């Protein structure tokens, strides 16, 4: 549910721009930097990284008749760069009016891009899970290698957990985040490290609540003691 992380982070940035003029730009700059870093990591996981990670789009192309290429999913990322550049330009100029305008356009375009991706990808992922694909393994093999340093992994995991705890939308988004990562972990030691990133990012009460929902000691297929969610429609990494 990285898309929900992006939506939550966009809301955080928007709220920063609603502050009084003295605090808006400085608060936005901090939130924007964290958001952009996460979005770049997420995009790399989708687009792929040469010689490191195949990426989600290539995985879908291989298994779903070149659907990502057909629907122009990579092209949508390229189109976002122009809108992002306008935000960066206004931020550098410290022009709050232009920044609010540029970010509003960026947020609208980004949210439309997320929705368009989901309309293509979610039915295909459901189709693959019903066909027996282990989606956490697909995440581990094809997408997570794009996060090719401990610093990148830490930011991706921590920022996601922190954002989803706050922007839960009345749903267990932080739990889904933790559960998917637990299932995608390649070893118990790796999951212990990732779990610590989640714990450090969340409030103590928020993290404690995860333990009442899932087994925080389980990883890989054992994270799901009964039927793995990638064997059921509507669930997965």
Average pLDDT, all residues: 92
Q: Largest sheet, described in full?
A: none
What would you call the shape? globular
Q: Stretches where pLDDT falls below 50 for ≥5 residues?
A: 230-237
Determine the fraction of residues in helical runs and give it as a percent range. Answer: over 70%
Topology pattern, helix = H, strand = E? HHHHHHHHHHH
Q: Number of DSSP helices?
A: 11
- What is the structural class? mainly alpha
Which radius of gyration do the C-alpha atoms yield? Answer: 18 Å
Distance between the termini: 8 Å
Number of strands: 0
Strand-residue fraction? Answer: under 5%
Helices and strands in order:
Blueprint: H1 2-17, H2 21-47, H3 56-63, H4 67-70, H5 73-93, H6 96-130, H7 135-143, H8 150-166, H9 173-184, H10 188-201, H11 204-213
Helix pairs in contact: 1-2, 1-6, 1-8, 2-8, 5-6, 7-9, 8-9, 8-10
Provide a descriptive summary of the structure in words.
This protein is mainly α. Helix content is 73%, strand content 0%. The protein has 11 helices and no strands. It has helices spanning 2-17, 21-47, 56-63, 67-70, 73-93, 96-130, 135-143, 150-166, 173-184, 188-201, 204-213. Helix 1 (2-17) packs antiparallel against helix 2 and helix 8 (150-166) runs antiparallel to helix 9. Mean pLDDT is 92; it is low at 230-237.
